[in-house]
């Protein structure tokens, strides 16, 4: 099997190198190997293999978010004034399979108008639908022509669901005018709620890109030219003497890898005869490019890196969906939430030994796409109304926010009273705020100049979206039969005299009317949002597919401007954001990219 931690000399020169074996990287590697088994391919992945039980077993997903964990890379942003001078740490997949191996397994597809808004030949929704179908074996409801039924990734409800929470949420959302939609992932449906589908097989296994695309090819004996080097971080791309053509990569052992052997060897080089494809994710790819001399001359000069190609868009316009999470006390039973397992009251080893159905659960039972009513838009003020009129009003395909129901306390349970909780997670899509992510020196260990930019947009439109979403999710929660009040430390500290104050209740609320928030309450909410907004782990757009003069880094065939034989395939290329959790778009980018590279390499399929 072509998995290495130390590269044999025979593999030090291949046809194609893929720098990063994440979601998109695994798809590209497997599809290229499938198209031409004689093509020699080397994936250079910074992290370990994905053969870890917390990856395979869905219910253990929270372990990947522990800051001490080794399965994610935590990209540290600087303190940002508008966020109460907080430093945000943005986790991103850091093992073979990337985010698909460490994520929360929510199945969520971009909207039709998201792809169309890219305005890029070959990437419209109609162009992308065949790839969205090709990647999946779908076990859910909906129109047959929208889904795939023989692809590598199984999409199902998994082996477990909290049916009472689902029904309760759907009934409460219905009272506020949001209907249940059986397939909210059809590209066209919007403004409703869905019983969640997941990247979990019907028998309860995580469906990550490494397990489903790459390993089968590594193990089937028919792809001897497919190789994967683990625990190896790509420092930079190597060019020919004229600095025009990418001919390889320099890499070093990952000193942070729990499984790697630090300082095993110095920086080494692997050579590529045909293509170098960078697929290190939206947080990793811009740094690889900048260390290679591709980027803004000002950024490169500050970092003491000679310019190979002047491409000013690299690392600019960083975007992420902006997450807020709100916990509630509930009357749910222990088997209906994650709380017993997450708090250690139930031993995970025991449920693994018993092969309990709960193993195949990600605790996210509902997903929603929501838009505000006209009156709610107006109430958010004239600037918000202008943004809405310009960007949303006439496009009913675009939601303002995505929301999920989590069956359990959504974080570190330390200090949280024993009990059963549920939570609403909300992220506003299409943020107006932008950040950046640049290197500050030529070495891989040099600190990053990274700002998320959350809530920096003109007129605070992103903040107003979050204010609307806070009020909306709370009204849904208050109409649920299992609601027993807010878990106060997870909500803004409204004073006891306010109608918005957090409460405890012994039973469900009756005759629920919407909370009226005063100007003082809104100020408290705004401050709280600034001090608590965080990453949704959906980084995109740092090496856009757009014209170079519009901060683009790659063209529609994913060719990096200014050099030859260098491509990008990951979520850094998104020209505009998507109203979805981003794994599906990463898989689809991988599929589309693979087809482009197969054509460019002259491989006939
Ligand atoms: C905690 C978490 C929860 C999420 N939950 C969901 C969800 O429920 N549903 C959903 O749809 N999406 C979710 N996502 C988002 C989704 O997983 C990502 O958007 C997707 O994985 C991005 O794919 P990518 O190919 O662009 O990059 P990645 O999958 O991040 O792959 C990048 C790869 O490059 C490697 N790498 C980085 N730098 C280097 C280097 N210098 N040298 C070598 N290798 C390098 C990394 O180790 C990684 O394997 C979540 C993400 C995270 C992190």
Automatic annotation (TrEMBL):
Protein name as annotated: Alcohol oxidase
Keyword Flavoprotein: yes
Upper lineage: Eukaryota, Fungi, Dikarya, Ascomycota, Pezizomycotina
Species this chain originates from: Talaromyces islandicus (Penicillium islandicum)
Alphabetical list of Pfam families matching this protein: GMC_oxred_C, GMC_oxred_N
Keyword annotations from UniProtKB, A to Z: FAD, Flavoprotein
Keyword Flavoprotein: yes
Binding site for substrate: 363
Gene3D superfamilies tied to this protein: FAD/NAD(P)-binding domain, Glucose Oxidase, domain 3
Residues annotated as binding FAD: 95, 234, 537-538
Entry cofactors: FAD
Molecular function terms, GO-annotated: flavin adenine dinucleotide binding; oxidoreductase activity, acting on CH-OH group of donors
């Amino acid at each position: 099997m072509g998995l290495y931690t130390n590269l044999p000399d025979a593999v030090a020169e291949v046809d194609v190198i893929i720098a990063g074996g994440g979601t998109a990287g695994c798809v590209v590697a497997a599809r290229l190997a499938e198209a031409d088994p004689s093509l020699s391919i080397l994936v250079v992945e910074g992290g370990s293999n994905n053969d870890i039980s917390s990856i395979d077993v869905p219910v253990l997903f929270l372990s990947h978010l522990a800051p001490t964990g080794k399965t994610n890379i935590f990209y540290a942003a600087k303190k940002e004034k508008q966020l109460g001078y907080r430093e945000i740490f943005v986790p991103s997949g850091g093992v073979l399979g990337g985010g698909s191996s460490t994520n929360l397994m929510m199945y969520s597809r971009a909207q039709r108008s998201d792809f169309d808004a890219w305005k890029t030949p070959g990437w419209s929704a109609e162009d992308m639908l065949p790839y969205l179908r090709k990647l999946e074996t779908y076990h859910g409801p909906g129109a047959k022509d929208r889904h795939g039924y023989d692809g590598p990734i199984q999409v199902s409800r998994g082996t477990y669901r909290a049916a009472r929470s689902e029904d309760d949420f759907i009934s409460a959302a219905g009272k506020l005018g949001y209907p249940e939609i059986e397939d909210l992932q059809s590209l066209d449906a919007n403004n409703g709620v869905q019983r969640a589908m997941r990247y979990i097989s019907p028998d309860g296994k995580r469906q990550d890109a490494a397990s489903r695309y790459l390993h089968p090819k590594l193990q089937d004996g028919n792809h001897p030219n497919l190789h994967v080097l683990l625990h190896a971080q790509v420092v930079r791309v190597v060019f020919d003497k004229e600095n025009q053509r990418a001919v390889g990569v320099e890499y070093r052992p990952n000193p942070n890898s729990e499984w790697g052997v630090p300082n095993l060897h110095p920086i080494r080089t692997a050579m590529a005869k045909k293509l170098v494809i960078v697929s290190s994710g939206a947080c990793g790819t811009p740094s690889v490019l900048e260390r290679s001399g591709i980027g803004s001359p000002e950024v490169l000069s500050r970092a003491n890196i000679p310019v190979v190609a002047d491409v000013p868009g690299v690392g600019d316009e960083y975007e992420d969906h902006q997450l807020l999470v709100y916990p509630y006390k509930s009357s749910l039973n222990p088997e209906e939430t994650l709380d017993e397992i997450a708090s250690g009251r139930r031993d995970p080893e025991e449920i693994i030994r018993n092969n309990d159905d709960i193993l195949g659960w990600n605790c996210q039972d509902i997903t929603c796409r929501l838009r505000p009513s006209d009156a709610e838009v107006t109430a958010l003020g004239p600037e918000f109304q202008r943004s809405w009129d310009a960007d949303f009003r006439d496009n009913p395909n675009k939601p303002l926010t995505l929301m999920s129901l989590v069956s359990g306390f959504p974080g570190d349970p330390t200090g949280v009273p024993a009990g059963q909780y549920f939570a609403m997670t909300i992220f506003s899509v299409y943020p107006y705020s932008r950040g950046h992510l640049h290197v500050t020196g030529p070495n891989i260990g040099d600190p990053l100049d990274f700002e998320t930019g959350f809530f920096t947009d003109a007129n605070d439109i992103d903040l107003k979206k979050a204010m609307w979403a806070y009020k909306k999710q709370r009204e849904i929660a208050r109409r649920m039969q299992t609601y027993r009040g807010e878990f106060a430390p997870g909500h803004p500290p409204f004073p006891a005299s306010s109608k918005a104050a957090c409460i405890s209740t012994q039973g469900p609320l009756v005759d629920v009317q919407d909370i009226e928030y005063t100007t003082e309450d809104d100020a408290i909410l705004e401050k709280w949002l600034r001090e608590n907004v965080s990453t949704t782990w959906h980084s995109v757009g740092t090496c856009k597919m757009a014209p170079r003069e519009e901060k683009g880094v790659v063209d529609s065939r994913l060719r990096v401007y200014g050099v030859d034989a260098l491509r990008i395939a990951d979520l850094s290329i998104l020209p505009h954001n998507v109203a979805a959790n981003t794994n599906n778009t990463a898989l689809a980018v991988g599929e589309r990219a693979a087809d482009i590279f197969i054509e460019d390499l002259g491989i006939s399929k």
